[in-house]
Description:
The chain is about 25% helix and about 25% strand. The chain has about 375 residues and is an alpha/beta fold. Strands 1, 2, 3, 4, 5, 6 and 15 form a 7-stranded mixed beta sheet that branches. Strands 7-14-8-9-10 form a 5-stranded parallel beta sheet, with helices on one face. Strands 11-12-13 form a 3-stranded antiparallel beta sheet, with no helix packed on it. The chain is built from 9 helices and 15 strands.
Amino acid sequence: PDSEAYMFRPTKAPDETASEARRDSEKSSPSLSVCKDRPSLTRAPGAASIGPSEAMAMQSNYDAIIVGGGPAGCAAAAFIARSKWSTLIVDRSQSEGFLGSLGNVSYFPGFPESISGAEILKRMRRQCELEGARLSTEPVTSISAADGGWRVATEAGREYHAKAVVVCTGAASRTNYLQGEREFMGRGVSYDVIADGPAVAKRTAAVIGKTKEAAEAAIALARFAEKIHFIIPSNKLEAGDDTMESIKACRAIETHFSTSLKKINGEEHVKSITVFSSGQEKEIPAVGVFTFVHEHKATTSFLQDLVEMGATGAIKVDRGFATSAEGVFACGDVLCGKPQMPAVAASQGLIAGMSVGAYLNSI
């Protein structure tokens, strides 16, 4: 993942005059408010989501289009629509995406009880609809400049136009999952020790990988887990001497070199892993599996050279989540190229939505 892209570095927009106008607007309107009497073109409580066929009959012009309907996209859309700007969410599928695949979300503010990612998304999308946003389910194929704004083209041949676009297409576009990995996402499988480490407190967990990131995850997990099986699919760890010394010094960590993960086992939740080592398979008990074998990748190929990106395709933004293209914003996992806590993605979406409001007020 491109960590540099996640550092919200300032980027210059091609139209410097418009950039200055936006910054002036932000300074003069610290609350990022919008005109109270501005009519909403789509305000319709309970507006239903639509598919590609219904999309052909709907309006084409909006103040803002949100590409991606995960937590970041929904948070941005709800705020923008609530501020009376006509808003459209275009999402490839209501069932795909990282959050929707989680059987249980370990931490999301306001939900102390167990809740699935699909249920959180259902509620967030319902809120978007109640605020007046429209939802269309169709993959986006390109975004291009048009008529002082932006044209969003879809796989169904539909074209939408907007003054501002927010890209939140995530980083969950993977097909090379380990056996059992996708099945147990949110039910024992995780990619984030900070978010899910507490779930394995005083229990046994496994970390899979050979990189420095995997090694640091195993060290961090020792704060919570009683026992950590560090499964390393290589005869050496791709980490510095200091990291290696920390691994050796941690009594909770048991390293398994030249060992590959074959399967993640369980029923409702992860119970064990099956590994292959020294020519034979064996089962190791574990209630949590933190895997760093296959990297995720930001879903940005459809953007081509529209905005500045890092080496991995993660989008670079400033602190207001504006990209290098004037009027195009980005937030969520598309900024770091890997899944992050859904609550973090949603908070980024809210800030991006506020920035979009300020931008629309300035033009």
